[in-house]
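Tutorial handout. Part one gives the primary structure; part two gives the three-dimensional structure as tokens.
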Amino acid sequence: MKIDVREGVQIDIRSDKSMYITIGEYTYYIDDSTGEQVMDYWKTNSPNEDAMDSNIPQNPHQVYDEWVSWADFLGTEK
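Part two.
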């Protein structure tokens, strides 16, 4: 569920334990789905956010410490 709070501020609730908050030029990610209290932020730079699958982070290298590659992340690496 996306909520436009006011111009330049949007909350994108992905589950009862994770969300993205966009304020101006920055996006903040908050996730407690694994009990690890993950918080991250990055400069918002994708004009096609809605085209992305909502279950795949746009910047997984910023979300996952163990990031290797898209193929590894998606399980398609041989």
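Part three, for discussion. The two ends are 36 Å apart (CA to CA). The chain has a mean pLDDT of 81.
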